[in-house]
Amino acid sequence: MMALLLRDLKLSVRAGGGALIGVLFFMTVVAVIPFGVGPDLNLLSRIGPAIVWIGALLSALLGLDRLFQTEREDGSLDLILMQEHPLVLTVLVKCLAHWLANGLPLVIASPLLGLFMNMSETAIGAVALTLLVGSPALTFIGAVGAAVAVALPRGGLLVSILVLPLAVPVLIFGVSASYAAVEDPAPFMPPFLMLSAITMFFAVLGPVGAALALRNAGD
Amino acid sequence: MTESLAITKFSDLANPTRFLALVARLLPWMACLTAGLFAVGLYLSFTTEGDYQQGETVRIMYVHVPAAWLSMMCYSVMALSAIGTLVWRHPLADVSHKAAAPLGAAFTLIALATGSLWGKPMWGTWWVWDARLTSVFILFLMYLGLIALNRALDDPSRAARLSAVLILVGFVNIPIIKFSVDWWNTLHQPASVVRLDGPTIAPEFLVPLLVMALAFTLLFFTLHLMAMRNEIWRRRVGAQRRMAARMAGREA
């Protein structure tokens, strides 16, 4: 399992892996927003947490189709399916590796983008913290979509369509927790705890669903 | 003994010819019953008095509420069929959840459209992003995604198994829709028909509503059986076309 984790990490970080493209996309999306709504700093600081979250959600979706696609192309997916370890665990480890390579850089890049958005220190911290807790849920949900679409020739777009509706609760609680940290009357903990609960829930459901789909995708 | 008999009967339906015969016998009755219930329900909906506050717009409820119930029931039927696909590999279950997806999308669209027509005079806006409306909209998107997935895969049995997985994962949305009005403070009113301390809705509105709900449910099952029959026919035609092409290739 450790070996699989390291292998996936190495593959995604080295050339052609595309882990950094996600971060680049994230920055581009967030940088485009001020062009759209105008460079009004007050407005930007108000919508900042939501923009950063949406950007992170989109770039998390962008990398999803790679989760099982490369394995299918070079045939190692069949080896993974045939090995003795429970497939659910393998999928879980692959999700973790994918999150370390694609999700964690987004979390690390988010404070910088928060500065661009003229957000206060508390808001930046809250967004980074909620992203840290919430982005694994995006990977786990996305794993199901990636596994379902693995057999499709052009699955990338379909994965996004299938996964986005399920990812909406993560977005809702992530953004509301970030706003609660800034605005006084709303308490921070309830939405934050809901976000953690969603992540843990999908940490179980996601790999199970993805493993089921992978077993059925092979013919 | 009766249970094992029921199971045998159920697995007999795996034979499409038997299923088609059963459908052919059931469909006229169900269609007649549906039409009769709709006649009674629509008559009741248009003759009962309007609400003293909402006036005539309360009649939208007789379409809106059953359609919304049906949109959730359709997904539950699909989830049961998905279990049937994954656990028992029942071939009819594949056909069932594939046929139900467009129906569910249609009922959800009806619920959303009538809801927004009702919302304009009552709330003063076509659409608000509150929990109930948003979760139903997500349900609509999930139906469309499932239809897209089914169309993207050309092997029907693999498409059925993959969409079954997705249906089961997406089932988490159904309790969210049901309880969204209790968990969050929403503009949408809380449940007023199905609740522990009895319905809080006046009987003169409740009777037409229940008749319409029954009519909608029967309409769903009628359409669902028809769609399943069409799907089986479509597969047979496809198989025969392939066979004809093979024969033609052999002769040439």
TrEMBL record, chain A:
One of its GO terms (cellular component) is plasma membrane. It is a multi-pass membrane protein. The chain crosses the membrane at residues 12-35, 47-68, 89-117, 123-150, 157-180, 192-214. Keywords: Cell inner membrane, Cell membrane, Cytochrome c-type biogenesis, Membrane, Transmembrane, Transmembrane helix, Transport. One of its GO terms (molecular function) is heme transmembrane transporter activity. Belongs to the CcmB/CycW/HelB family. This is Heme exporter protein B. It comes from Pseudorhizobium pelagicum. The lineage of its organism: Bacteria, Pseudomonadati, Pseudomonadota, Alphaproteobacteria, Hyphomicrobiales.
From TrEMBL, chain B:
GO terms for cellular component: plasma membrane. It is found in: Cell inner membrane; Membrane. The keyword ATP-binding does not apply. The keyword Transport applies. Signal peptide: none annotated. It is a multi-pass membrane protein. The chain crosses the membrane at residues 26-46, 66-88, 100-119, 131-150, 162-185, 205-226. Its main location: membrane. One of its GO terms (biological process) is cytochrome complex assembly. GO terms for molecular function: heme binding; heme transmembrane transporter activity. Residues 11-188 form the Cytochrome c assembly protein domain. InterPro entries: Cyt_c_assembly (IPR002541), Cyt_c_biogenesis_CcmC (IPR003557), Cyt_c_biogenesis_CcsA/CcmC (IPR045062). Keywords: Cell inner membrane, Cell membrane, Cytochrome c-type biogenesis, Membrane, Transmembrane, Transmembrane helix, Transport. It comes from the Bacteria. Required for the export of heme to the periplasm for the biogenesis of c-type cytochromes. Belongs to the CcmC/CycZ/HelC family. PANTHER family: CYTOCHROME B_B6 PROTEIN-RELATED, HEME EXPORTER PROTEIN C. This is Heme exporter protein C. It comes from Pseudorhizobium pelagicum. The lineage of its organism: Bacteria, Pseudomonadati, Pseudomonadota, Alphaproteobacteria, Hyphomicrobiales. The gene is ccmC.
